[in-house]
Amino acid sequence: MTPLLFVLIVFAVSLVAGMIGSLLGLGGGIIVVPVLTLVLGVDIKLAIGASLVSVIATSSGAAVAYVREKLTNLRVAMFLEIGTTAGAMTGAFVAALIAGRWLFVLFGTLLAYSAVMMLRPRPVHLSEVHDKRRLARALRMDGSYYDAAQGRQVDYEVHRPLLGLIAMYGAGIVSGLLGVGSGVLKVPAMDLGMRLPIKVSTGTSNFMIGVTGAASAGVYFSRGGIDPFIAGPVAAGVLVGAVTGSKMLGRIENRTIRRMFVAALLIVSVQMLVKGIRG
User: Fold this and answer.
1) DSSP 3-state assignment of 73?
2) Three-state SS for 145?
3) Do 89 and 163 touch, CB atoms closer than 8 A?
4) What kind and span of H or E run contains 104?
5) What is the pTM of this model?
6) In this structure, what is the dihedral angle of CA atoms 43, 44, 46, 47, given to the nearest 10 degrees?
7) DSSP type of residue 16
8) Residues 6 or more apart whose Cβ sits within 8 Å of residue 250
9) Which of 3, 4, 14 is nearest to 233 (CA)?
């Protein structure tokens, strides 16, 4: 494969990854890492470095539109970033100690877990209204947004922010280890654990992944884990795709977004688990 053809393929794949990543709050790494490693034969640690760059590009491309449309809950995002940033730094350092094949296995397992969690119905506990919302009320985390698909204003309440903070530390570790923006865990944690609407979970995740990715990208860059020849077309393609995807989210039904999320996780999970098990 010529260098020009390689760049064009990476750009095209990243364009699709950016669009899907911004729609689902996954950062694009969910597609970029498997394609670079499984199809193009790029070393997984270089692929993760490029993916971290793509995560920052996805966040930059989609965040403005989501904040303007109130699909991003800024108070929730700033609170949860405390956990994700700390976790991202932890994961970036730990990644150097883990063999490549085990990163594949860990990646695939976490994606499968996220898919299963998104398929489960939300449990209803009436006691949470009084017992698990004190901090959320104190920080004024509740919000609303206009849902173009439903044609109405949607008001929502935030539950269990401390549980979300703990989950975000784990999500940050995943981001540093795998370069996927940790949206694979952030979206389910906000959707199921904190009871945010799926569109708000997606929009808030897109806002957060840029900060999380930047925290661990610096560590990868300092030890030569980011190759400009790979990261350049990835960042460019993902940025264009993210801007396109951000214009589509408001017009898509919540159920459709959830199904897309689960399908994307399951497909890539199987691919990565097979690769990791085979070595």
Assistant:
1) coil
2) strand
3) no
4) helix 100-119
5) 0.75
6) 120
7) H
8) 69, 71, 146, 147, 148, 149, 199
9) 14
CB 111 within 8 A of CB 272: yes
> How many Å is the Cα radius of gyration of the chain?
18
Residue 279: band (very low, low, confident or very high) from pLDDT cuts 50, 70, 90: low
pLDDT tier for residue 22 given thresholds of 50, 70 and 90: confident
- Distance from chain centroid for Cα 143: 21
- Residue for token pair 């004024």: 140
- pLDDT confidence tier of residue 132, bands split at 50, 70 and 90: low
Average pLDDT (147-161) is 89
User: What is the C-alpha separation between 200 and 146, in angstroms, rounded?
Assistant: 11
Q: What is the DSSP string of 234-255?
A: HHHHHHHHHHHHHTTGGGS-HH
Per-residue pLDDT for 245 more than 80? yes
| Residue pair 212/182 in contact by the 8 Å Cβ criterion | yes
Taking a C-beta distance cutoff of 8 angstroms, is the pair 169, 87 a contact? yes
**Token reading at 13:** 């794949």
